[in-house]
Design goal:
There is one protein chain. The chain has helices at residues 2-22, 39-58, 79-91, 104-118, 148-161, 175-190, 209-215, 229-242, 258-264, 266-269, 285-296, 306-323, 328-337, 351-359; strands spanning 25-32, 67-74, 97-99, 121-124, 141-143, 166-172, 194-201, 222-226, 249-251, 273-279, 344-346, 364-368, 371-372, 384-390, 396-400. It is α/β, with parallel strands linked by helices. Helix 5 (148-161) crosses helix 6, helix 12 (306-323) packs across helix 13 (328-337) and helix 12 runs parallel beside helix 14.
């Protein structure tokens, strides 16, 4: 009798669990460097993700009215922390897909250890190292941020256009910075430029004076810095200026943050620093739709990768809707179907429109705030780049690179 009663209680509990797990919400991981060297940048990216979530939930939600729930995982821009955070998202939180992580090293480590074996789709909004392209990922790893194979070329073109023929370079020894530095060096040499010295450095040192002294050998006209602003980049520029070692700087988007100007001084940097950044065509209707909505939340639509964070979340939701279920395997397949250049155009904020088109069996093509989101065979997009310089108001001023 006790056994019968116990079985009945167990069956009841299982039924209750199944009902709870079923679904007034569908979980998607929101992985990123919430702490670490680019925490301020990531905070705005997460706001972009959250805007997409809020719009989707306000216009009918997923499938039959389920809410999109974004579950935060702090990858800290660190490979080990990312494996732990993404492992928890996949195996404990049971998310159906991952938006993020932020940094390339964190992305490479977590997808190889966790998501590829689990068959979970990852759509990164800011991991840009060329090494991501080379992953054996069973078509599960995608990104809406362009590879640094494109950005490394853009920086080389920028330096060459400035008439600089000899440049020193230093890079932080991680996947993102080492990857873009390698591309830059190769492309600059193809243009006839000379890299007088090339040196890796460790992040978070109190001073880089001795390294910079070595890098001045050979008469470089400028230095290209591949680093995160919060770990070594600002210190390298300060040491360069304080000791009269370098006065002209070029950098990639890991260095793009207002704190660079605030800590070093607009007068010291104006006319002397150029930073490339994956960007958006601000005249495009998709960007404008995102920008208006993002401004209404009090956030800056021009912040690095904010538009990409929005797009990655909106696209993951579109893939769930297209798949018709929260099945992980179907979602990864559906990601390509919602942005392949075919079907009726859907723009940011048009969730209700997209939901109806999918329900009617029609093809859709998402055109994102960050640009066209058509994936190539590696899950990459070509993207748009801008250059940032110090403006008259002491803020970054941007223009698209042509």
């Amino acid at each position: 009798m006790k056994l019968v009663k116990q079985l009945a209680v167990t069956a009841c509990a299982a039924a209750m669990f199944a009902t709870a797990a079923h679904a007034d919400s569908i979980k998607v991981g929101s992985a990123g460097g919430v702490t670490g060297p680019i925490a301020e940048l990531v905070a705005t990216i997460v706001k972009g993700r959250d805007l997409a979530r809020d719009q989707i939930n306000a216009e009918g939600g997923l499938l039959k009215g389920d809410k999109l729930e974004m579950v935060i995982g702090d990858s800290a821009c660190d490979p080990k922390a990312a494996v732990d955070a993404v492992g928890k998202l996949v195996n404990v939180e049971q998310v159906v897909g991952i938006v993020g992580p932020s940094c390339s090293g964190a992305t490479n480590a977590s997808v190889q250890a966790v998501t590829i074996p689990a068959g979970v789709a990852v759509l990164s909004d800011s991991a840009t190292a060329p090494s991501v392209t080379e992953l054996k990922d069973n078509d599960t790893v995608f990104r809406v941020a362009p590879s640094d194979a494109y950005q490394g070329l853009a920086i080389a073109q920028l330096v060459n256009k400035a008439g600089i023929k000899k440049v020193a370079m230093t890079y932080s020894n991680d996947d993102y910075n080492a990857g873009i530095a390698k591309v830059f060096e190769e492309e600059f040499k193809k243009m006839g430029g000379e890299v007088t010295a090339n040196q890796a450095h460790e992040p978070n040192k109190a001073s880089y004076r001795s390294e910079l002294q070595t890098l001045t050998a050979g008469g470089p006209e400028a230095i290209a810095i591949f680093a995160y602003y919060g770990s070594s980049g600002i210190t390298i520029i300060k040491n360069s200026l304080e000791n009269g070692l370098f006065g002209k700087f070029f950098a990639a988007d890991g260095m793009f943050d207002q704190s660079v100007i605030d800590q070093i001084g607009a007068d010291n940097l104006k006319g002397n620093i150029s930073i490339t950044q994956a960007s958006s065509d601000t005249a495009d209707a998709s960007y404008q739709a995102f920008a208006d909505a993002f401004k209404a939340t009090g956030a800056d639509p021009a912040a690095p990768y904010a538009a990409h964070g929005y797009d990655a979340t909106f696209m993951m939701a579109l893939a769930i809707e297209k798949a018709g279920s929260a099945d992980r395997a179907k979602i990864k397949d559906a990601l390509r179907a919602i942005s392949d250049g075919k079907g009726e155009v859907v723009r940011p904020g048009e969730w209700a429109k997209a939901k109806k088109l999918i329900a009617d069996g029609k093809d859709i093509n998402y055109e994102g705030a960050s640009g066209s989101a058509d994936f190539d065979e590696n899950g990459d997009v070509s993207g748009v780049f801008a250059v940032n310089v110090v403006g008259d108001d002491g803020k970054w001023a941007k223009e698209l690179l042509k």
